[in-house]
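Here is the promised in-class demo. Please do not try to memorize the tokens; focus on the logic of going from shape to residues.
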């Protein structure tokens, strides 16, 4: 099998695993009281960093690029809104909305070369546009803002990779393998979440709201997210971000909606079921169009 064929298979398998885990990673927390979410986000990010440490050791500690931490800082900022989103509009709808705007921001920045990145070409651009468009179908204030932050999270890593090919750049010779940047990216997440949590403790006059029963579920949730993101890094490398973003950001909404229907009963009634089926068809069509635009 050609390297291109191997990359496609690796990319789509990684994308599938990422979609499944992203759509399920908040499930362990659903039945626990997480309050305002500030303590929980710190627990999540601690678990994320531990997974990154293991990956970094497995990869034999590739060079650490501090700029890659910026993407983690951006992600942690968007993550602050996750708990309020899930508490107010539910797991399924929340992930559908922020996933849509995540997809739009991440896809557009890669496709058109925003933020100093190289624009990425695909063999079938019309299919890619259709796929990205069909992946974006909803909107709500917090989830929209969160999605935009999430969609910018890979920009520093892609920027480093693009500029590694230029001899006059400070990033000349940097690795082209996305997973080599996981530790720096996740370190940015943990550092930023810690700063936010300390600021929260100061604002609460050293009396933060802690929820011990959410610690273990929070660690599990963070570990699932971290593994999913590692798969996303692999998919970015194998497929390119312009293809992986619409697939991985739109798909979890469907998985979360399945949890919402069958486990948590968030969606009820024939009309809502039909609406969800329509959303599924749109998301699936968008993912397939995006996938075939690479072939």
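The designed amino acids, position by position:
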């Amino acid at each position: 099998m050609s390297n291109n064929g191997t990359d496609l298979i690796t990319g789509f398998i990684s994308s599938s695993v990422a979609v499944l885990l992203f759509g399920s990673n908040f499930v362990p927390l659903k039945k626990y009281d997480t309050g305002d979410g500030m303590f929980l986000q710190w627990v999540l990010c601690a678990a994320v960093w531990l997974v990154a440490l293991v990956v970094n050791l497995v990869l034999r500690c590739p060079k650490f690029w501090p700029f890659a931490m910026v993407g983690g800082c951006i992600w942690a900022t968007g993550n602050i809104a996750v708990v309020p989103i899930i508490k107010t509009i539910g797991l399924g709808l929340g992930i559908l909305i922020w996933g849509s705007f995540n997809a739009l921001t991440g896809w557009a920045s890669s496709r058109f070369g925003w933020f100093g990145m190289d624009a990425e070409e695909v063999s079938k651009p019309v299919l890619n546009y259709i796929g990205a468009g069909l992946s974006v179908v909803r909107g709500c204030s917090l989830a929209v803002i969160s999605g935009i932050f999430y969609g910018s999270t890979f920009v520093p890593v892609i920027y480093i990779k693009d500029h590694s090919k230029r001899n006059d750049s400070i990033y000349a010779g940097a690795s082209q393998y996305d997973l080599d940047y996981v530790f720096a990216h996740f370190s940015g997440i943990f550092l930023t979440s810690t700063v936010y949590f300390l600021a929260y403790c100061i604002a609460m006059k050293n009396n933060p709201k802690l929820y011990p029963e959410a610690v273990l579920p929070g660690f599990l949730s963070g570990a699932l997210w971290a593994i999913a993101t590692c798969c996303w890094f692999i998919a970015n490398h194998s497929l390119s971000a312009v293809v992986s973003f619409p697939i991985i950001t739109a798909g979890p909404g469907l998985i979360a909606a399945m949890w919402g229907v069958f486990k948590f009963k968030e969606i009820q009634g024939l009309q809502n079921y039909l609406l969800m089926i329509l959303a599924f068809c749109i998301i699936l069509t968008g993912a397939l169009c995006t996938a075939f635009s690479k072939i």
